[in-house]
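Final report, Chapter 2: Outcomes

The project's central promise was a pipeline that accepts a single protein chain and returns its three-dimensional structure in a standardized token representation, suitable for archiving and comparison. That pipeline is now operational. To close this chapter, we reproduce one record exactly as it appears in the project archive, with the input sequence first and the structure output second.
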Amino acid sequence: MKKKITVLGAGMVGKAIIHDLSGKYKVTAVDVDEKALQYCHEQYGIKTIHKYLNNSQNIKEVVANADYVVSAVPGFMGYNTLEAVIESGKDVVDISFMPEDFMQLNQKAKENGVTAIADCGVAPGMPNIILGHHNDEIKVERFEYLAGGLPKERKFPFEYKAPFSPIDVLEEYFRPARVKEYGKMVTKPAMSDAEMVYFRNIGHLEAFNTDGLRSMLQTMSHIPHMKEKTLRYPGHIRIIEALKQSGFFNRKEIHVGDQIVKPLEVTNQVLMKEWELQPGEEEFTLMRVIMEGQTDKEHSRFIYDMYDEYDKETDLTSMGRTTGFAATAVINLLDEKHYQYKGVFPPESVGKERKCFPFIMSYLRERGVYYYMSVERL
């Protein structure tokens, strides 16, 4: 009998998760978006539930019969959703990129006999898994990763389309970036330390600090230099800074005629349309993970490069594929009993397990997502 998996969220990434799991498992999708649910039902023949996931009772009702849960809700809903799933006693993989510290739920997960893997997408997610795998082999001195998802066609003014809701993307531009420099954690403004980086498939892109290291700041605290940067087409950061300095992202209410509005909410609605990917619109996701350190024999730099594009055949975005398939790889790990610890864990804990890293890489390759490794002797 097929195992039952409930996917919370049927958006762009949720759709990729459902696509990948529906052949092997009995999948139920839950969302407030009826159009998204209808698409998933017609395309994949799965059960759907129209439900607001804004309270723990609703969440516990929809996961009650599940063997596993994947949480693909927006970041601001992530922590409460994960907590409700853990209280339901369900093993869960989470990709919500919540602002809160998910490790606060570790004890609750242990008490409920739950395995919960959080931040388990493309970024954060795969860089953590890669570092977790190599950390025991290399005395890592420097670690950084660059990641971004962009439309293939550059359209003025933003030259950007959001694979997630704009408010989740904007959170990257608001949240101060924590980095490691000379063994100390340093907090820098988001979008600071901008630099141009060349990629063979694309050309030059703009990279800037964002707060993507997350759990690695604690689990990999022995590494003296660490940073994460987001990638955009050149010029994007200047436009965002102009909006920010002009007050378009303010949360404080203002009077407009006889209406009271929050500028950020208005901006979010405008960007929702401006940044929305159109059906069939081509986009790509790319990542570079760099580790420098000492092996038994020599000082080396290990580089992983990933580039993925929209899949016309399945109508899955590259961001949906690269994020969703990382999560489904780990669901399959749990189902095949390769990872059985109880508690809440970051992805680097999965990557360090001997069988898990090759399993995940093989799983992604089978779905056309490739991470190419090269080594430079220093």
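Archive annotation: The first helix runs from residue 12 to 21.
This record, like all others produced under the grant, will remain available to the consortium after the project formally closes.
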